[in-house]
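Entry, Tuesday afternoon. Goal for today is a structural model of the target with zinc ion bound, before we commit to ordering more compound. Inputs were pasted exactly as handed over by J.K., no edits. I checked the ligand SMILES twice against the vendor sheet because last time a stereocentre got dropped in transcription.
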Amino acid sequence: MGKVRYFLGIFLFSIVFLLGCEDGVNLFTPEDDVQLGLQLQSQIASNPKDYPILNNPDVTSYCQGIVDQIILSPKIKYRNTFKYQVTVIRNDNEVNAFAVPGGYIYVYTGLLKFIDNEATLAGVLAHEIAHCERRHATQRLTKAYGVGILLDIVLGKNPDKTVEIAANLLTGLAFLKNSRDDEYEADSYAYEYLKSTKWYPGALIFFFDKIKQNEGSSFLQVLLSTHPLSQDRIDKLNAKISADKLPPPTEDNLFSQKYQEFKKRIP
Ligand SMILES: [Zn+2]
């Protein structure tokens, strides 16, 4: 009896401790992220009305090639666990990109046509990779479920159910709405990932600038609802650039010309 109470005590303490840590609590495993991602990926694949997939190997492999280089960064933890696969969605009216757990990244032709150089695309893709690496979606699910799911998982009551419940919650992909803190974190990690690549690490700033120039445009509405852009985000990225004393970008790390050629090939 005493033993039971002892373990129960430790168990309850752990819960209080876990809930006390505001940041980074995630009751799902990276393998759960993969499972969730697979479910969402098939949901997206079977909904061509909302997600018309562009079947153009040239355009897709251009984007995939960038992702493949970013994930070589030593700061990437899940390159062997997550799939890190890019899918291009054919919709010029939406400037957007999103990621589902487990490394499935989606980018709209509207975004590809909106930006001006390859480094900016690398920045956007690195930002989406960061959402996967930091496992923001399952972290938010953890917060949303709180103690109930915590108990079920810790007690190992129903591991299959866990994934199922989460998948139901994800219906409509509403969970893709990122919090402000998730955005800061994804920007910051993206910057770090890009440091080990040939691209200018601060390139997301070009994306932010262009968004600001086009504020109020309908094609930015979804983007801004899933990836809130605040002046803080811009300031934080600029602060990193200054702290690192990054020299101003050049054609050698922006690849504008190469990108303009690529843009002509996007249907
Ligand atoms: Zn984001």
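DSSP finds 14 helices and three strands in the chain.
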